[in-house]
Amino acid sequence: MKRPSTGGVLRGLVAILLTGYIVWRSGPVAILRAAAGVDALPILGAVVLVLADRALMALRWIVLLRPLSPALRPPLRVLLRIFFLSTFVGTFLPASVGGDAVRAYALTREQVPGAPALASVFMDRVLGVLSLLLVALVGLCLARDLLADMLVLGALALTAAVCLVSALLVFSQAAGEFGRRLFERLPWAVVRRVGQRLLSAVRQYAAHRRDLAIVLAGSIGVQLLRIVQAYLLGRGLRIDAGLEVYVAFIPLILLVMLLPVTINGLGTSQAAFVWLFGRTGVPTSLAVALSILFVALGVVGNLPGGILYATGRAKTESAPGPGG
After folding, report:
1. What total of structural domains would you count in the chain?
2. Could you report the per-residue pLDDT of 211-268, keeping only the tens digit for each?
3. Strand partners, 94
4. Does residue 186 form part of some domain?
5. Which one, of 239, 210, 244, lies nearest residue 227 by Cα?
6. CA-based R_g, the chain, Å
7. Is residue 295 part of a domain?
């Protein structure tokens, strides 16, 4: 059995310690009291929406595979299975990076070349981050006091820089040539070769602007669904905050959760919920309870992949051997 990596152990430890500290400071009894009084109907609505956003996420990734020739593109049922399995496995990996790696690797197992496989998940992630940035900017119009917070501005500026560099690599000939020369100077032949192939695959999306626009629109739809999910969870906890509060805060929280420093955003999400919702007078215990429900809702959304994983293993284990 393969041992967990040191980085994975450290991320798990950070998640446990940070979550434990926040729960302890917030008062476990108060958090349990808040959870005990939950209204089940809004929670059920949030569950329905999280399944809808997973379906939309799968569809946007499938659109990004259109540049592949029909001979290389796996069947739809295979792509859906890969996507949902990767979301389930990604539950136990750092942020969304682990799930992306699993998805790209699974594509190569279906005879898809490595560079286009990596390019599809890279573009999916970049457009997802761009959609978060756009929705966050709208949210800042509703919470203008956050404009005075240098941490928020710095995070948004860094996100914008990542999106800008990615866009230049796709659409700018000069940036593409610069990237090619940069890879040529790397000392390892394998890294040079992989980097140049990946860059070439990413740049192919410049000829598929309509598909990119569709995926960006779908990504914005996913972010809006997540805002409504959080709002419904808040209603279930009887948090007295309007929808505009969630529009302002949830995109920023989702950006924090993307940081690959813990497993599945545990700890970092709790800290972000407490910090932001505390600004509007939401008690710390309710903010922590909301953060825990929000992370748990994401796990629920990943359960279809868990079912596919379990049934796939069951079929493999029950298949007769060579002499069966």
Report:
1. 1
2. 999 999 999 999 999 999 999 999 999 998 889 999 999 999 988 887 665 665 667 7
3. 263
4. yes
5. 244
6. 21
7. yes
